[in-house]
Amino acid sequence: VVKWSLPRQGRWRKRRRGEPKVNHRELTSDGLVLLLELLLEEEKLSSTTLHTLHTTYHLHTQDAEVRHRWCELVVKHGHSKAYQDVQDFLVHDQAMGVYLYGELMVQEKPEQQALARRCLSLVQEEMDQSARRVVEEMVL
């Protein structure tokens, strides 16, 4: 917020308040899911915004529903700094990751497609047969 103030010299100048202190209350998992779903509707989000979300809400440590939405945001906006979160999700939450493989391939970004192939190679033997077949059709 910018306010106008009259300094001693008699000239009007903008006075900026200091950076606002982050005073957010803890969001529940449902609240985080809702927030991330609303952000998924945004056409473009900056890397700074995504990084701030990640560090503020510790998204990589949340439950599978929150991490899934976080990974969707990472893929949609090509936030390569969080690709490790996507890989961890695909490796450890295989049942929920099938949709995410499709998102990685649809984006047509070579780095994301390579990530999908790498993750599939890591978990291919452990996956449920029907899920593996679906993912292989998308990825290979």
UniProtKB/TrEMBL annotation:
Cellular component annotations (GO), alphabetically ordered: nucleolus
SUPFAM superfamilies: ARM repeat (SSF48371)
Biological processes per GO annotation: proteolysis
Keywords: Hydrolase, Metal-binding, Metalloprotease, Protease, Zinc
Cofactor requirements of the protein: Zn(2+)
TM segment ranges: none
Molecular function, one GO term: metalloaminopeptidase activity
InterPro entries, per database record: AOPep, ARM-type_fold, M1_LTA-4_hydro/amino_C_sf, Peptidase_M1_C
Location of the Peptidase M1 leukotriene A4 hydrolase/aminopeptidase C-terminal domain: 5-139
Family of this protein: Belongs to the peptidase M1 family.
Name of the protein this chain belongs to: Peptidase M1 leukotriene A4 hydrolase/aminopeptidase C-terminal domain-containing protein
Naturally occurring in which organism (per UniProt): Muraenolepis orangiensis (Patagonian moray cod)
Upper classification of the organism: Eukaryota, Metazoa, Chordata, Craniata, Vertebrata
